[in-house]
Amino acid sequence: MELTYRPRRMRRTSSVRSMVREFSLHPEDFIYPLFVHEGNTLEEIGAMPGAKRWSLDLLVGEVQRAWNLGIRCVVLFPKVNEELKTEDGAESYNESGLIPRAITLLKREIPEMTVMTDVALDPYSCDGHDGIVSTDGVVLNDETIDQLCRQAVVQAQAGADLIGPSDMMDGRVGAIREALDEEGFEHVGIISYTAKYASAYYGPFREALDSAPRSTSGKPIPKDKSTYQMDPGNAREAITEAQLDEQEGADILMVKPGLAYLDIIHRLRHESELPIAAYNVSGEYAMVKAAAQNGWIDESSVVLETLLSFKRAGADLILTYHACDAAGWLRNI
Ligand code: PBG
């Protein structure tokens, strides 16, 4: 055959393939999510094999391990004791609460590690919602934002580098920016959960924190988060959310979940010049782990291929529970 174009020429050897490769993964692309709890034990999480609830003293060693693997950012999630949960989630801005203590400890022991936080009421709410639920079962927007601002300021006071509002209330990025600036934290960044969908992929995470919506107080509680998280049927709306977050002062935009929403990552990449993050969420992690444990897939290959898909779609950063494993595989250790 007389063929002018033979794309296989550029696939012939491993070195040529590496020369023409468009996207690659690096440990600095990863943000490592960690669960923390009170007490001094290390707890397994049933639906997230390999992920743990860390006590504060053991957390330092794990974050040091991540740093040594090249990871430059961790995000912390608290499992709050049931007796501290209230309707207004006031524990979220307790200066001596679990998260402020964890941040202070990490910034003292490993100061260069970037510490990101999650801002939302669900781990602190007896109703399991990201905002305050009214007596007639409505998740209140503006009242919730007051709480979120207090939470963000307390996290910044403890030393957080990046504040991550995950609640999806309208106007929260602007309000948090203003609250941080008023308290002298203009250097603290906001990584906004910009396009966060009402997704069944968060199931294992809610098990890890025991934070699913539930009715304990007698009032009607919405059974899911679809009045504030985005509808999975919507794509254009993600652009509206991105424009609002950008105007309100977000420094990084995030899409969540990542894998089932690669098209949204791609759209936001073209819509904004800000860095884009993808959250490879707990359900996505659990599915890969389950298949790997059954010997149905090769874990390291599938994980690295999946993480690369986020980069190809346009993400600069990937929040992933696979972070340490993936960083190790990339470095062949
Ligand atoms: C809390 C929050 C959730 C996740 C991150 N922050 C759960 C939720 O919105 O219900 C999910 C992360 C994951 O599934 O890995 N607002």
Secondary-structure blueprint:
Layout: H1 14-20, E1 30-37, E2 43-44, E3 52-54, H2 56-68, E4 73-79, H3 98-109, E5 114-119, E6 132-133, E7 139-140, H4 141-158, E8 162-165, H5 172-182, E9 189-196, H6 203-209, H7 236-248, E10 252-256, H8 262-271, E11 276-280, H9 282-293, H10 299-313, E12 317-320, H11 323-330
Helix pairs in contact: 2-3, 3-4, 4-5, 7-8, 8-10
The structure holds ligand PBG.
Ligand PBG is lined by residues 118, 120, 122, 130, 166, 202, 205-206, 225, 281-282.
Can you give a write-up of this model?
This protein has a single domain, classed as TIM Barrel, CATH 3.20.20.70. It has helices at residues 14-20, 56-68, 98-109, 141-158, 172-182, 203-209, 236-248, 262-271, 282-293, 299-313, 323-330; strands at residues 30-37, 43-44, 52-54, 73-79, 114-119, 132-133, 139-140, 162-165, 189-196, 252-256, 276-280, 317-320. It has 11 helices and 12 strands. The longest helix is centred in the middle third of the chain and has 18 residues, at 141-158. Strand 4, helix 3 and strand 5 (114-119) form a beta-alpha-beta unit. Helices cover 38% and strands 17% of the residues. It is globular and about 75 Å long. By secondary structure, it is of the alpha/beta class. The strands form 2 sheets. The protein has an 8-stranded parallel barrel with strand order 1-4-5-8-9-10-11-12, surrounded by 9 helices. It has a two-stranded antiparallel sheet with strand order 6-7. The model has no long low-confidence stretch (mean pLDDT 97). Ligand PBG is lined by residues 118, 120, 122, 130, 166, 202, 205-206, 225, 281-282.
